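hi support,

uploading two proteins for the ticket. first:
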Amino acid sequence: MKISSTESGKAALSGATRPAEKILPKERPSTRGLAERAAEVQLTLLERGILAAQEALSKVPDVRQDIVDELKAKIESGQYQVSGEEIADMMVRRWAADRIR
């Protein structure tokens, strides 16, 4: 079904949907057992790739403790020195990168 710009404009004016509001399920479905469910149904190549990526990401820790420990040791020993200019530069870079997304 194709919706014309007039019809979409009417829907926007009616206030039926607001872009700022997000409708999320109260409980998200479990991603455990994705491989088992994939075996039960026929999936496209893209869907299989998504499942593989989700499973790989589930095995990656949220915090890379080795990097955290290394930085913590450098800070405590006084070997980690960062200037205010470097911090400001990285803040501007991060802001610019976030705007691109």
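and the second one:
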Amino acid sequence: MSNIANPMTLEVQEAAANAALEARIMRIMALAVGLAVVIAAPFFPWRVTGGLALGGILSLLNHHWLRSSVSALIMANATNQRVGHSAYRYILRYLVVGALVFAAYRFGLVSLPATILGLCSFVVALFAEAFRQFYIVIIRREEIS
């Protein structure tokens, strides 16, 4: 009988694993943006470096807003509350990101392709996490927690 899993303990472990995953993704995103800006600074014009920095910062901000607005939508749905305010926040983040990129490009402050590359830092973080998970499963032959 001592081998029976406590459901509450499993929920706590799962919540901790999810929090650790989110923290890793944010760290990798920030590292990818910082590395891209540092590498681009001496080799590319300042508009490219600025575009990478702007895109990366907006990517980090967008990821944070996405997490908070989706969790607010889920909580509102679970408690049968109106989702209007949360839904507006979900859409507002696209408008803010788009307006900032458009304004920076229109004023000639950034390179649009570099800004789009900076916005792709989430993709870099997902690939890094996928390689980490493959390493744990294949090389170390452990289960992913």
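thanks. also noticed: Residues 9 and 15 are 10 Å apart (CA to CA).
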